[in-house]
Amino acid sequence: MLGFGVAGNVRARPGGFDVANILIVDDDPAVQLTIRLLLERAGHHVTAAGDGRKGLRRNSMPAPAADDGTIDVA
Length: 74
Known about the structure:
74 residues; two-stranded antiparallel ribbon; 2 helices; flat
């Protein structure tokens, strides 16, 4: 897994914790689900895609673009 981030769009929520829109790109649904659950429990907004092309399309949709992400490169 490889992570990426774009500073500046992450919003602070009460209590000082940051909330981010995070894109998960992984072809393994179990990995997607595990990462999604962990990040959502931390209060983040999560979107998932099964491959790079879908990830690029999802990140360019009218919905908020991802601030951070995880990408399966193996």
